[in-house]
Amino acid sequence: MAPTLPIETPLSEEGKERAGIQSVEVGFALLDVLAQAPGPLMLRDLASAAGMSAAKAHRYLVSFQRLGLVVQDNSSTRYELGPATLRLGLATLSRLDAVKMARERLPALMEETSHTVALAVWGNRGPTLVHWQETPLAVPVNLRLGDVMPLLSSATGRCFAAFVSHGVASDKAQPMIDNELAMARKLGRSDLPSTPAQVQAMVEETHQQGLGRAVNVLLPGISGFCAPVFDADGHLVLGVVAMGSSATLETDWQGPVAKALRAFAAQLSADLGWLNR
């Protein structure tokens, strides 16, 4: 009688998604701990943080060293991420598109806040709207794609004025602020900063709160927030905006819209490689 062969049961779609190599997932915990550590770690500390024994961690680390994922200092015996992780990280960063990533996530933010959301980047003439997603019940706002936001009277501009600190953008920001200050004084706008000291106070508040905010300043009856998104080098790459009727948008610094924007921007920044330490 012919031997009975075992019958292989096909994996379901869910099973296929879950199938993997557990040892790879376990070993990655060591790399993750090293990535988040402020510096090289001793074996016992590294193993403890990864939730495994020192002997088990050592076996993984031997293989990681062969692959260049981890290096060990001969004098201190501490472990650190190796050159292979740097190559992988740089390759990942070179493929990241902050605006594309943000656009894909904006619908969820719009649903969470129930307000119009937008993206802005620093263009040739200042903070420029590059994407706009309006809720069905939104109050019409007289803004459009390509509009450049003023630095002192818009939430977007205030965000960029406070967080732009590198490169060409920072060189251009001060002349723009000076021009807007002169215009505010000329028009007698008491709701806008009109002195360098008042601009500094606005910048400090924006830094402290982690958001730019404008309430009935740029447009009557319209309020908004703008949260900064940073890349791996800590450079401001875009602003995430939420705006709406002042009657329905909660403008408190700790309100639901402000909290949702902060969380959104923080997660996107982290995914772009920014470490807020």
H-E string: HHHHEEHHEEHHHEEEH
Global shape: elongated
First CA to last CA: what distance? 70 Å
Structural class: alpha+beta
Beta-strand content: 15-25%
How many β-strand runs? 7
How many whole angstroms does the radius of gyration measure?
25 Å
Sheet of most strands: 5 strands, antiparallel
What is the mean predicted local confidence, pLDDT? 85
- Uncertain segments are 1-9, 13-17
What portion of residues is helical?
A: 40-55%
Outline the structure in words.
- The chain is α+β, with helices and mostly antiparallel strands and 277 residues long.
- The chain is 48% helix and 16% strand.
- The strands form two sheets. It has a five-stranded antiparallel beta sheet. It has a two-stranded antiparallel sheet with strand order 1-2.
- Helix 3 packs across helix 4 and helix 6 packs antiparallel against helix 10.
- The protein has ten helices and seven strands.
- The N terminus is likely disordered.
Relevant terms:
alpha+beta, 48% helix, five-stranded antiparallel sheet, 277 residues, two-stranded antiparallel sheet, single chain
